[in-house]
Amino acid sequence: DAIAYGLDAPDVVEYHDRLPSTNDRARNLAVEGATDVLVVAGTQTGGRGRLDRTWNSPPGGVYASLLRRPDRPPAHAPVYTLAAAVAVARACREAGVDAVIKWPNDVLMAESERKLAGVLTEMEGEADRISWLIVGVGVNVDVSGGELPATATSVRVEGGDADRRRFCQRVVETFHALDPDDVLAAWREYAATLGREVRVETPGGVVEGEAVDVEFPGALVVRTDDGERTVHAGDCEHLRPA
Ligand code: BTN
Questions:
Q1: What local confidence, expressed as pLDDT, does residue 7 receive?
Q2: How many CA atoms lie within 13 A of 12 on its CB side?
Q3: For atom 10 of ligand 1, which residue has the closest CA?
Q4: How far is the centre of ligand 1, averaged over its atoms, from the C-alpha of 144 (Å)?
Q5: How far is the CA of 227 from the centre of ligand 1 (A)?
Q6: Predicted-assembly ipTM surpassing the 0.90 threshold
Q7: Ligand 1 lined by 232 (C-beta under 6 Å)
Q8: Is the CB of 140 within 6 Å of ligand 1?
Q9: Per-residue pLDDT, 5
Q10: If you count Cβ atoms within 10 Å of the first and of the last residue's Cβ in the chain, which end, N or C, has fewer?
């Protein structure tokens, strides 16, 4: 089942010293008909984040996008995003840095909650099947504090092993080793959001309450004054320190 989910190893790995955006490169490859490609760049000139934000991409970071055509319904796409966040968080821990995940896919430093990494998933779906899916990760690995905004940090700043190649390899290996049925359980192990008071800006309005669980394919369950709400997408803020 891992193969159908597309978590197995990519056929092709492309490395570029500099690209506008690895997600854009992967998208062009998808439009040309490619599949199973991992695109890695040393730096990006037009890195993109979630919610139309830009992603600061100085040299020393890991910028990588995986193109897949999994035989899954479009609604399953969030599983890949969560799997990528788990892979990055685990790679951070292996590098000696105490990383946690903020729903859905921000990788943060445990106590300061400064951002180490993010995941941007893009997809084109047909009615019942994903046509192509791109999972892009950006990680501040060998980046100095001066190159980062105040809300961010890096593996190097946190005193971890900042070898980019090793880091990238660990992310890819963990992503491939994950059993899709275990993604939610693995995500919960790293989650900083569960049990916390949160404020989530969703396309349908603000949801506030205690985050109690994550459920397939990656939705956050929030206990509000009006009962439980299941949130599928949005920007999540932790309201109080852990
Ligand atoms: C976020 O937290 O907003 C997600 C950031 C995702 C950034 C990565 S870097 C590699 C890939 N290419 C991009 O342009 N964006 C993603």
A1: 58
A2: 11
A3: 63
A4: 19
A5: 34
A6: yes
A7: no
A8: no
A9: 58
A10: N
pLDDT in tens, 75-132: 999 999 999 999 999 999 999 999 999 999 999 999 999 999 999 999 999 889 999 9
**pTM (two decimals):** 0.94
Residue 218's nearest CA partner among 232, 199, 207, 229 is: 232
Give CA–CA dist 73/11, Å, rounded. 23
Domain extent listing, the chain: 2-190, 197-238
CATH code for residues 2-190: 3.30.930.10
| Residue 28 alpha carbon to ligand 1 centre in Å | 16
* Residue position matching structure tokens 């949801």: 207
Residue 20 CA: which ligand 1 atom is closest?
14
Which CATH number applies to 197-238: 1.10.540.10, 2.30.30.100, 3.30.200.20, 3.40.605.10? 2.30.30.100
